[in-house]
Structures are given as structure tokens and as C-alpha cells.
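Quick one, T. Sequence first:
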Amino acid sequence: MKREQARILAERLVAQMTLEEAAGQLIFRAPAIERLGIPAYDWWNEALHGVARAGMATMFPQAIGMAATFDPDLIEQLGDVAATEGRAKYNAASRHGDTDIYKGLTFWSPNINIFRDPRWGRGQETFGEDPYLTGEMGAAYVRGLQGTGDVMKAAACAKHFAVHSGPEDLRHEFDARASAKDMAETYLPAFEKLVRETGVEAVMGAYNRTNGEPCCASKTLMDLLRNEWGFKGHFVSDCWAIRDFHEGHHVTENAVESAAMAINAGCDLNCGCSYENLVAAVRAGLVDEETVRESAVRLFTVRYMLGILGDGSEYDQIKYTVVECPEHLSKAERAAQESCVLLKNNGMLPLSPDRIGTVGVIGPNADSIGSLIGNYHGTSSRYITVQTALQDALEGKARVLCSVGCHLYKDRVDGLSACPDDRLAEAVTVAENSDVVILVVGLDETLEGEQGDTSNPYGSADKRDLYLPDSQRRLMEAVLAVGNPTTIVLMSGSSIDLGDAGDKADAILLGWYPGARGGRAIADILLGRCSPSGKLPVTFYRNGQLETMPDFADYSMKGRTYRYIEEQPLYPFGYGLTYGDVSVTDAVCEGKNEDSLLIRVSAENAGDHGTDEVVQIYAQNKGSVQAPRNPRLVAFARIHVPAGEKWTGTVSVSRRNLLVVDEDGKRIEEGQVQLFAGLGQPDERTCALTGHPAVQVR
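C-alpha cells:
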């Protein structure tokens, strides 16, 4: 049902409600209104990387891993998987009268905030540090979730609007100050794209203030959203964020004033209980009754658009049996394979199952479910860890010896052990008796995530530095000292500096949080069943670079991300090796129109392994004082190049991406545009790591 038609039905329905009934519908747990035939509905549901917190569902790699695929087509398919399973679960729950939390069709995903600082615990939920990549991947996921039919399949939500990326422990009282340039160049483009181009149904406000205004009641942000970008959907607060107005930000005196401030600014739906005070706010003259009714109309409009009020839709026929069906699991596994980033390889990988003899699988994340799932995760009927997958794949071919090696962060595994490092001797013994070692280390949601979600032993939910916990550093040192060929499999959602271990390891494979069965994808890559092809959607810094970076609470982009970094990183944004040897050999601008340029790119694979690759186009405005310090990503395309063969294709570059943003936040033409095509950035570090420079577009 189109929005205009749905709004007419919503207006008629809301007109029959009392003020109390209409106001009651603006809280996330909306009650039934039996006299009007309106069932109860809970607006709170999650689908960050598959349907979350609602029982069984197909689980994809965490969002940061999805970003590493650089594959919008696949991400759109994953969005459709989440919407399909969400419908199946909604249909089943509704038939049994279950309208509880996480049972609806309004998903508070995706998170399109910018991962500007590597310490931020929630960065794993994002599509990385680049506004262009974030917009492309976020838009693809929204298209998949919402569908293209007359009835919306599920409602997506762009969050958290705006300028939100830590520190987590300050978010309920923090004022994120950002210049007009940084707003327009970095923090807002992905939101604008999702509103203008995908028609995202919902936008969620952030906890913090932005430039002095609480985000869930910011007249500046709301004006931009509704009047400049033409947003027609509904606005929802982050959970209990409106309460922060008087308890954290101190911009109001009490709950009644906070509720009035939010709804008057345009916040339609309250995740929390502040809107229980709306009727009192109306009676006190702080809110007009029509303002309450307008928000109710917006909310009922989407319920009609979803077909959950009115005549229903074809989606009512989706059966529960699609949940975790083979097709969905296959797409999740493909996403896990495409997400893995090969950071280093001295020739150890891929392993040959028929020639390796004994494999030592060591580390706290080797057989850890927590390292598969990230945060905001669903539940799987089966989990496949790296250890399990290697045991299955090598059964009858090679011996697999295992040791947890150490606790994820404590100094001993067994609380009754008298001495620290109580599994270290076992790990060393396994390494000594193995022909090759797979050392699986990293983090999980107990060490990086959202404030309050888990008991992070180091602080709120952010990281204090870029190193692994001391227990794992001692493990890596001891195992690598044995001297047998060792691959480190790193499972985390953010930049990690492995220190000396990174230098000593023969290979490093970044698996992120690969999803419930992601261990199999990692094993397939280790054993050469497929080539790694993921690219970093974030810069991997050296830990010492934190000292030259602005304070965590400083939202200036100076020195942050690949666009403004001043020193060579550990591993650059856009970087990732494969088992092939692909290079871009030529790039020519062969066509242009009012909106875009068409770049014809040629690449060849001189290696022995066919592989996927990601052609990346970067722009630099030579002579511009307003352009970012370094070339910026303006287009990309995932391709496949068979061993010994060549590939030629075209990549479209939007002319808008070639503009620069001035200090007033306006996009202008400035400088001479230079374009570069490669398999990463056109920088010295990428060239040194890959052996192949980017080429300038002719």
C-alpha cells in the first residue's frame, strides 16, 4: 500500500481515538484498542545482521564484516533474508496471540553511524569509517529489508541520528560538537542517502546532544530531515533517551517537559516511558493535541503500509519453515567467506589438507560461540566454530590437536588454579607437536559493545587501547616462540594491533564476528576451498597512533580515518590480500554525462588461484584546500578474475562524489580532480603490502 493511501486510512482511524488512546500509541509497547479493532503492537525489533533476540534465525556476519564484503548486491539479499524470516516469525507469533517485544516488523536497523575512532565498542555494528561505503551498504540493506512491492516487507530504521560514535559511558550526557564541514562531509551523507534514495521508513535519534541540542529533539536535525531531505516516515527515540533530557543533559526540568520537547520537535515514537506524560503535557498547554495525533497518524501509516492493519498482504503466507532454510544459510555462509580479510601471508596459506599431518588449533576464540555472534545477535540452531569446522574438514586427513591456551581476558582459565596462565603449557605442547598452528584470538561482545549490554571488565563498552588482553598476548608470544608455521585468525569487530605477534606470524586472517556458522567459512579459506576477498572497511592503526589522534570525545575528523590520517597505518582502509595475484593494469574515462563518469578498468590475475577482488576508485582534488587530506573512495565494484585471466569492466562514478565540502557545509567544485583505480588506496602503504600500485585514470 502506498504511503498516501495508507495515510488516509491512518487519519480516519486516529480521528476516532480519544487523546489518551492516541497518546498511548506513541510508546513502543502500543496497547490494543479493542473497540476499534486495533491489536497490540510492539515496535521494538532488531535485525542488525539477521533477525535478533527473537529465537531462531539465520545469523549473518556482524555489520562490520558485511561491510568488508564490499558487495551491495549480497547485502541487499541478506536484508531480504532478514525481512522474510521476520515475516515468518511475525506470522507465527500473531497466530498465537504473541505481540511481545522482538515480534514485530519494524526493525531498528541498520546502524549507519561512522566508525570514526577505533576504540568505540559499537563500531562493530556499523559499516565502517567511510561515509560513501556506509551509504552504499546501508542503502542495500534497507532495500532488502523493505522490498520493492506494493506492501512494505519490513520497515527499516536508519540509526543513530546523528553524530554518534562514543564514548559509550558519556552518551547520556554528552554534547558532540561537529563543524558544518564535518557534518556534511562525514556524519550526515549516509543518512541523507537512505532517506532520499531508499525511502527508509524510520530514523532513530541518538542519545547524545549534537551541537547543543538533544538529538531526539533537535530542531536543526529535524528540519534537515523533514524539510530539506523530504523524510516522510516516522522518527523514534533511542531507548530511554528522552529521559536523558532532564536526567543527563539537563535541558528540561522534568519528564513532562522532556516529553513535550521531544514530540514538539518531531519525535513520533518513544522507546521508553516518557510519553506516558504526553496527556499531562497537553493539559499543561505544552503540547497541542494535534501534534500528538499527527505522530499517531505517522505510526499507523506504516502499519497499514506493512499490511498488518487492513486487508493483509501476500507476505501473510510466508511459512515459519523458511527460518534457517538452506538457501538462507547458504547466503550467510557466502557473506562470511566474502567478509574475511587476509592481512598477511608469507605463503603458508592456503593449507593443503593432504600434506599438513597434524594441525594445532589454539586460542580462546577457537571454539567460542561468543566470537561468532558479535552483539545484537539472534539465536542459531547450530553453531560452527573454527575448531569444529577444521575438525570436520580434516577428519580422516589430518590430526587436529586443540588447546584453549588462555582465558579471553583473565589470567587463568580455571578459577581454582593456583598459578596464572594455567593453560599455557598445554598450548605450547600442542604447538610443539603440530606441523602447522592455527592460533585463534581476538575479542567478543564482553570486551567491545554497547554500554550496559555486557560486563566489559575494562570499562563501559569501549576499548582502552588497540592491543589484545594480556592473557592473549602472552599466549601468542609463547606459541610463536615454538617456531612452527603459524596463522593467526583474528576475530574482532574493530582495529587490533597484534604487536610483535603480527610480525612473527606467517599469516593473519581477519574473520570479524562471522555469524553462527562462520567457522566453516574461515576453515574453507584456510584450506583453500575459496580465496579470501574481503577488504578493510576501517583503518587498522598502530596502538601508538592513538597518542596523535584527537581525544576520543573530540568529534573533529582531523587525523581520523584514512581520509585524514597523517601517518602510515598498520593496515589501510580498503586493503586485503587474496590467493590470486590481481593487479589493475589500466583505467580510462570513456564516458561522462551530467550525473556520472564511466571508468573502464582492466585487471589481470597473474596467480594460480582464481579469486574475487574489489576494484576501488579514489578521487583527489589537487589544489583544493577543502578536500580531505588523502584520496577518498568514490566508487567500487566486486569482480571475479580466474587464474591467469584478465577482466575488463566499467565502474560508474557519481559527479557529486567529486565535489568537496567547504567550511559552511556546502558542496562545491574545487581543484583539479584526479581519479585512481586499484585494489586498495593509491597510497604507499597499500602498494608496499600488495606489491601493486593503483593507476591513475586517463
